Amino acid sequence: MIPAQFGAIVLGVAGMIAVVLVRAIATAGKRRVRLTNEVERRLAEILDAFESTATAARSREELLDARLTRLEQALDILAVETERIGEGQRHVSKLLSRETQDENDKRR
After folding, report:
1. Which letter does DSSP use for residue 19 in this model?
2. pLDDT at 86 (0 to 100)
3. Contact 58, 16 (CB under 8 A)
4. How far apart are CA 17 and CA 3, in angstroms?
5. Is the pTM of this model over 0.90?
6. Which of 26, 37, 80, 94 would you call most buried, defined as having the most Cβ atoms within 10 angstroms of its Cβ?
7. φ, ψ of residue 28 in degrees (nearest 5)
8. Residue 81 burial (10 A CB sphere; 0-12, 13-18, 19+)
9. CA pair distance 63, 72, nearest whole angstrom
10. 22: left (phi > 0), else alpha (psi -120 to 50), else beta?
11. How many CA atoms, within 13 angstroms, populate the side-chain half-sphere of residue 76?
């Protein structure tokens, strides 16, 4: 579990406990009902903000994962192409070496 998810879970549970406590206080008297509704509304807004933050963090993680995947693929392709270049250079060196050796043999 990532820290952002853990934090969202803890805050969600704390928010639910707060709502239950606020409702319990609301039953104590009508005057407190208005205050209780305002507190519940504010707690709901705070919980929504935390949920949207957690969702944004998850979408950022997904974007980074996709970006890292593309980067890994590009590095793999680069490694293959670099190996092909090396093979080509070895082949050309081998041919040049043979030509030089053949010329030296002809001179003798």
Report:
1. H
2. 93
3. no
4. 21
5. no
6. 26
7. -70, -25
8. exposed
9. 14
10. alpha
11. 6
Residue recorded with tokens 């994962």: 65
Burial grade of 36 (CB within 10 A; 0-12, 13-18, 19 or more): buried
CA distances from 75 to 39, 72, 80, 88, 103 (A): 54, 5, 9, 20, 42
Q: Which two tokens stand for residue 43?
A: 């707690």
Whether the Cβ atoms of residue 40 and residue 18 lie closer than 8 Å to each other? no
Residue spans of the chain under pLDDT 50: 1
The two three-digit tokens of residue 71, written as one number = 């980067």
Q: Six-digit token pair at 27?
A: 């039953």
| Structure tokens, 40 | 């519940």
